[in-house]
Design brief:
This protein is α/β, with parallel strands linked by helices and 313 residues long. The protein folds into two domains: 4-184, P-loop containing nucleotide triphosphate hydrolases (Rossmann fold), CATH 3.40.50.300; 203-308, 2-Layer Sandwich (GMP Synthetase, Chain A, domain 3). The chain is built from nine helices and nine strands. It has helices spanning 18-26, 71-86, 102-114, 131-151, 172-184, 203-218, 252-259, 264-281, 301-308; strands at 4-11, 44-50, 53-59, 89-95, 119-124, 165-166, 228-235, 241-249, 285-293. The strands form two sheets. A six-stranded mixed beta sheet has the order 2-3-1-4-5-6, with helices on both faces. Strands 7-8-9 form a three-stranded mixed beta sheet. The model has no long low-confidence stretch (mean pLDDT 91). The structure holds guanosine-5'-diphosphate (GDP) and magnesium ion (MG).
């Protein structure tokens, strides 16, 4: 049996539903999900291998306007663009409820300028909407898409019909249909990963990702954006998996908020993260969380590499 193998890159504005669909397609929770933009910071690889086909899905932070923003933001953008170059298929996601945004026009045009591979435009989260609203929003997305196509002559043939595709990460049949479609598009080539390696992500990165998810879910407003996570140690020698991790914040005043009154906030973050890690690892976990201050770390390339695993350019 000759092997097939390829990359699918997920793009779309923050909150479009990329990480949720990514987890659903891979069939395992690898990426953190929250209702705050930029929960995903690095590129994540999910491996779905079946029969002779290996599909490597790349979840990305999604592009955002980096002007005047931190080095962390700029690094996240460059991580995302690189995945377009690697991809055999690009999925561009638009939240059907939120509809098209002027940033989508620029972003989609940017994707098309970086690849000559097929692009699937998707209207996501359709389970959350009534049919008449879906139809109205999808029609509007279609119009805007046509405007992008007109800007870039010859691009229409690279979009896979229907445009847009309607998907829901919460509906198993929608996920299965999309997965089958993507698997069929993978080109001939040898597998790059063992079939049962779900990701190239080191265990420590996955744990850090699950801790960061709770920071995004439980901390308010801007605070999660200035938090990073590093797993300092994993001890597997005992019955209970012992994990030590540091949450880094960029200002002294943030430390107290993360810890909370009498340690209540840190405790709640730690408990939720521990339960999630236990679910993913199938083991009992003891999670030891520390909070450290590293002033303005989101502008320090070395710290970005340490806390987010994104190498400075
Ligand atoms: N109802 C519904 N909600 C979704 C779906 N996909 C994502 N969401 C929610 O939308 C928010 C953003 O999702 P996320 O995957 O983190 O978006 P990303 O920033 O593009 O990775 C989260 O609160 C998700 O639970 C979906 O198919 N249906
Ligand atoms: Mg995400």
């Amino acid at each position: 049996m000759s092997q097939r193998c390829g990359y699918v890159a997920f793009h779309g504005r923050p909150n479009a539903g990329k990480s949720t669909l990514f987890n659903a397609l891979v069939g395992s929770k690898l990426a953190s999900v929250s209702n705050k933009p930029q929960t995903t910071r690095n590129r994540l690889l999910g491996n779905y291998t079946v029969d002779d086909v290996q599909m490597l899905i790349l979840d990305t932070p999604g592009m955002h306007n980096a002007s005047g923003k931190s080095k962390l933001n700029m690094s996240m953008n460059s991580v995302a663009w690189n995945t377009v170059n690697d991809a055999d298929v690009v999925c561009y996601l638009v939240d059907a409820a939120a509809g098209w945004h002027s940033d989508d026009t620029k972003y989609l045009a940017g994707v098309l300028g970086r690849t000559d591979k097929p692009v699937i435009l998707m209207a996501t989260k359709i389970d959350a909407l009534k049919q008449d609203i879906i139809e109205r929003n999808v029609a509007k997305i279609q119009q805007e898409w046509e405007a992008v196509v007109r800007q870039i002559p010859g691009s229409e043939s690279r979009f896979l019909k229907p445009v847009p595709n309607e998907v829901s990460a919460k509906r198993p049949e929608s996920v299965t249909e999309l997965r089958t479609r993507l698997l069929a598009m993978m080109p001939a080539g040898p597998w790059l990963y063992p079939a049962d390696d779900l990701s190239d992500m080191p265990q420590r990165t996955l744990f850090a990702e699950l801790i960061r998810e709770q920071l995004f879910r439980q901390l308010n407003q801007e605070l999660p954006y200035s938090c990073g996570v590093k797993v300092d140690g994993v001890d597997e020698s005992k019955k209970i998996l012992h994990i030590q991790a540091t949450i880094v914040v960029s200002k002294e005043s943030h430390k107290g908020i993360v810890i909370g009154q009498g340690g209540s906030s840190l405790k709640s973050i730690g408990t939720a993260a521990r339960l999630e890690i236990e679910r993913q690892s199938g083991q009992k976990v003891f999670l030891e969380l520390h909070v450290a201050v590293e002033l303005d770390w989101t502008n320090n390339p070395k710290a970005i590499a340490t806390y987010e695993g994104i190498e400075p350019k």
